[in-house]
Amino acid sequence: MNRSRVPYLTQAINKVPEVTAAFWVIKIMSTTVGETGADYLAVHVGLGTAMTAAIMMALLAAALALQLRARQYVPWIYWLTVVLVSVVGTQITDALTDGLGVSLYASTTVFAVALAVIFYVWYRMEHTLSIRAIDTRRRELFYWAAILVTFALGTAAGDLATEALGLGFRLGVFVFGALIAITAFASYIGANRVLTFWIAYILTRPLGASLGDLLSQARSYGGLGFGNVTTSIVFLAIIVALVAFVSIAQGRIDRSRIV
Prior knowledge:
Shape: globular
Strand content: under 5%
Number of helices: 9
Oligomer: single chain
């Protein structure tokens, strides 16, 4: 074993959760909160895009610092970071599209290339992209860089599909849900688990965004009219409940290791 990795290994084991049903539900919910939460703060609260982005980036930096300093996987820190990454990832894409007028075709392509570059460098340096091997500081930094870009890419691709290509919110939920189901089936029958995980992870972003828009947007725009506030509160409540559940389960695992 490389001695340079020993200090970090003794402090940062299990920094990423196991991929379970709860993992995917929380992930999808967090993407929905990212979509509705960013819109609510920027538009309805009146903070504006720039102020909202500054606040969310500061909160993300603080959460990421907590995540990196943690000695092991701590559910509430990890998922708080994911929710904030979701908001910031959404804002990055919105800033390019709405603020700078970059087309969704261009932003989707740029983010796809950026993610490919991260994966390429990550694999060349670490020889694995598995989330079960996030056991060094460098791998964890690669992991979070990839997560941020997947959110930005998922936002751009989702908006491209539902808006530019005209799928709409309802059909968007069905299409992205079906693609995730196909990816899960491919993994089940023997496809590369690392590849299928990252494909599914990217697809959950446009699924969550489509779901968030379907629930929150007015009926005149093809939504169900629940609004950003109601949708965000309900989904946040579900996230908190699930994170509390996995925290209890993680605590039992940690105590069993001590015993």
